[in-house]
Each structure stands twice: as C-alpha cells, then as structure tokens.
Amino acid sequence: MPKQIHLAAHFPGVNNTTVWSDPAAGSHIEFDSFVKLAQTAERAKFDFFFLAEGLRLREQGGQIYDLDVVGRPDTFTVLAALAAVTTHLGLAGTINSTFNEPYEVARQFASLDHLSDGRAAWNVVTSWDAFTGENFRRGGFLAEGDRYTRATQFLETAKELFDSWPADAIAADKANGVFLRDPHAGEFRHTDQHFDIAGRFNVPRSPQGRPVILQAGDSDAGREFAAATADAIFSRHGTLQEGQKFYADVKGRLATYGRERDELLVLPAATFVLGDTDTDAQEKARIVRKQQVSGATAIKFLEQLWNRDLSAYDPDGPLPEVDPDVSDQHIARGRASVRMHRDPIAVANEWRERATAEKLSIRELIIEVTGRQTFIGSATTVADSINELVQQDASDGFILVPHVTPGGLDEFADTVVPLLQERGVFRTEYSGPTLRDHLGLAVPDRPIREVA
Known about the structure:
This protein is an alpha/beta fold. The protein folds into two domains: 6-276 and 373-439, Luciferase-like domain (TIM Barrel, Alpha-Beta Barrel), CATH 3.20.20.30; 294-369, no CATH class. The chain has 14 helices and 17 strands. It has helices at residues 31-43, 75-83, 102-115, 130-133, 147-162, 220-229, 240-252, 278-292, 295-306, 344-358, 362-369, 379-391, 410-422, 435-439, and strands spanning 6-11, 48-51, 59-60, 63-64, 90-96, 120-125, 170-173, 177-180, 187-191, 196-200, 212-215, 232-235, 265-270, 272-274, 332-333, 375-377, 397-400. Strands 1-2-5-6-11-12-13-17 form an eight-stranded parallel barrel, surrounded by six helices. Strand 1 (6-11), helix 1 and strand 2 (48-51) form a beta-alpha-beta unit. Helix 2 (75-83) runs parallel beside helix 3 (102-115), helix 3 (102-115) packs across helix 5 and helix 9 packs across helix 11. The protein is globular. It starts with 5 loop residues before the first strand and ends in a 13-residue tail after the last helix. The relative contact order is 0.16.
C-alpha cells in the first residue's frame, strides 16, 4: 500500500522566490490574493494553507530591505477571514513564542479552531535577535540559548490551557439555556522558569482539542523540540539523500518521547516550475531564476555574506577581491540568514573559485548558489518526483511555494494533482472535516489534571 502524499500551500509573502515583475503577479496584502491561493489549494484537496509571519521589516545597510516593502498583515486576522471562505482547507499560521504570551496565543488559536470547525494549525517559532525584539516590551531580553527552553514551556502552558475544558463541560436545555456541567472548567495554574499564571481559560475545548502543532527548526535543539511536541516539522532538505537523512533523524527521536513514527510528519518546502516538456520547464526555470535575482538583488545577497556595502560593484562584473568583514556588526538586521555561513571567508573563496572556473558574474553566481527550484519538469515528471521522494521516506509530502502570487498554484492543481490522484497516492475528496483528519492525526487525549 503506497504512502499517501500530504500537500500544503505556502503564501510566500516577501522573499526572494517571488517574481514581482511577472504580469500575473498580484498584491501580497490585499485579501483577494489570500482568497485566490487558499481556494485553489482547497479545490486541489490540499491539507492546509500556510501563512508565515514577520514581526519587523528587515533592514540592510540601514535601509528597509527591498523585498520587505510590502509589509505583512496580521496572521490571525487573515486566517480568521479565510475560515469564512473555505470549508475543508486547514489554516496554519506562524506565531512567535518569544514575543507573545501563552494565554493570548492559546485563546486566539482556540478561537480560530472554533471559527473554522477544527482546521487550525500553529507553527511554533522562536526569535532571539534584539532587533526584532525592539518592537516588543521585552526586546532582546532572551539569550539565544534559552529560546527553545521558553518555546517548550510556552507550548506546554498553551496545551494546559487548551486542555483545561472537558469536551462535555457545556450543557444546554430549553428551560435553562447554556450552563457549565463542570464548575472547574477552564481553571489553570502554571509556574515555571518563564511563566507564572493562574486563572480560568475562557474558550471551551475546540473541535480538534488542540490546534495541529507545526515546527520549522533544523538545529539539533529544533529537531528535538519537534520530536517531543510537534505534529509536523518543516524541512529545507528536499533531495532524496538529504531528505532521507533528515527524515530518519527526526523520526528516530520519537521513541524517546513515547511516540510512533506516524505521529510526526516531515514536510519540506518546495518550489516548482512546470512546462509542456522537461526541456520547456528547464527554460522556464532559467527565466524565473533571472527574474528572481535582479542585479540589485544579487548585490544585496552578496552583501549578506561579505558584510560590507557593495553597492559600487557591478552585478555583471567579478566578485570583490576584498574579503568579507567577520565582525559582529552585521550589515543586515532582522534576517534569520544574517550569518548564513560559519566561515564567511572560506565560503567567499569557494565562490571565487567557482566564478572563475565557470566564468560567472556576481549575478550569475548568486543565481546559482541561491537556486531554490525543487521540482522542474512536465507535470508527469514532477508528479513522479514527488511520489518517489515520499515513497522512499525522504518526506511525507511538501509545502509548495509558488513563485507567482496569487495564481501560481493553478497549473500545479490542474495538472500534477490529477496525476497523483490517478496513482492512488493523493486524495480525491476530503475524508473528514478537520485538519487532523487530513493529516491522519488523532485528537489528543485530555489529561486528567488537578489545579492547585
């Protein structure tokens, strides 16, 4: 029996995969764009729609980074609105555990799960940089090494709040209206290193019990956090060998926490370029990469490694002869990839050698080293590639990131999905109403707890 493939759609927002110059490109902030992508994903029977979140506009060289000028609307606001225009599609959002509080986040996700009839998912992320923290009361207070400790305690606290209501706590009759069967419903008390809270949670147990928990960390601490707490983990390892290595690693950690292998799904992010033939798709992919990396964008990427102002350099010229600045004063602020490489000088020398050997300009080199096209080919080729990676335990499915928003998923939905359905590895109809149904996850048990 072949494994069933899980697919999700990522609204790309602001990043270097987006082709802004394409005539089909639309707004990244108007609601119609979110509706278009979400409804296409639902038409194709995807598991969920995923919305990332940025808590501050990034800067480079003291100026707002050019890919961020559109900004980011609030995650909960968008997902709650999408709940009204979709019926089965899961609604997943990134919410930071460093700059929020458990009660507030638990209340928002429990509300979203009710509004959507059980389709909410929470991508739990951390942040340690003081630059982002300047937007918040506790800006910069948390050491990098403590971020997963807080995240673990944050999630455990939120779960206690989700579980504080018995499923049958509410009753109703015609004479007396709605009343509580359990007078202690919602009561909670939690004390640890980061949180000391007590009270009564004011949202009854939601259709899924708790939202589906997603996690995106790739470090050893991030993988351990996912193995202990998450229902699915995102991954950047989309090739067969690297994917199998990551898959085996995170799945192998589950037994330590009394969990089975199918209780954590591995979902790498993936881009795609489709064509009538493989050759046609390769040519389209080349054009897309040139659109994604303009001359100005190439210089911005080079500056992130060199940690210097390189605006005077010609993107169609050679790489700088000067070495990267390895000081702690970074030219880029608010980017997870500020220090992409542990040894910038070694990487710069590798790039120089490659540029010389292949006669590449700055822009041509950046196109090569930042390439993010996972699947390139005809619909048949892409369907075969996706299926092989899933069946060979390199993943359980993929988070698809189109390069055109909001219509970039249409071709995949119309051509690749039917082929996967014909192979019997992807659903033709939703089997249940909740996101846990789509992902094959059980509703978590509500533990019996005493509130002191």
